[in-house]
# Entry
Amino acid sequence: MHYYKLGTTDLMVPKVCFGANVFGWTLDERESLYMLDLLYDKGLNFIDTANNYSHWGQGNSGGESERIIGKWLKQSNKRDKVLLSTKVGGAFKGMERGLTPQDIRTNLEASLKRLNTDYIDLYFAHHDDLGCKQELTMHAFNDCVVQGKVRYLGASNFSAQRVVSANELSYAHGWYSYSVLQPLYNLYDRIKFETQYQSMAKEQNMAVMSYFALASGFLSGKYTELAQIKGVKREEMLKDYFTTRGRDILSALSQVANKHKVNQAEIAVAWQFTRECISTAIVSATSKTHLESIIKSTELTLDAADLDILNNASDYIK
# Structure
């Protein structure tokens, strides 16, 4: 697997980052530990999680994903061989959303403990906190880096304007700023990133890690009709994709996948690597087959005809 420099950071990362929101949810602890062994053995050393993953699972309260990763790191002794991305600022049981200095300090220490590490490679503000002055938030994040507990900072689920204002404050004070953006982006969910974030990311010289690269599994082609998702764990995430445009995208993916003799998920992920500004795509897997498919997508080349088919089907300006 090839590795690339992540924007202005000194992190060398693969094209895909493993999304660990499945740990402790669609994969139990045993299955998750197996998946961690597998992805590492296949050269995928970049893992993205959050302190509140996966609080939505039955019987969960948050922190499950970090605990599983921490257990694996302790057992495998591979902390210095993997890159960890986690987040603060999302709600979970007993914790409201927030990015106050106290929120950041308390949750960072809890994440470090769960992950069995003394530093985080990439620490994201998961959601904005409009009730806290950005100056206080960015000062607290700067302290995390100065203390050696965090290497780089990122922002997810912010408005473009708030990313810019946070970074301007940091520049003015000589603090560490957000160097990585984590937006929702895939063949279906294009409009917000392309119209609101893409130019901002370029102007701010930010790397971009897209999440939900497979639109919660919709782009995998596993589901072609709304009735097929009834009762599945991702039903609420999937239901809004079954539109005329969504079906057009699935048809385009099928056409290109048949041409290359691969599956639709591989085409959907490979498309990400053709997009301007996308540094790495966050993709989850729940089986060895899924993981191998993700890795194959990094080696797939789409030609101009493929891109015309995919881009026309997913065009939101018609």
Observations:
- The radius of gyration is 19 Å.
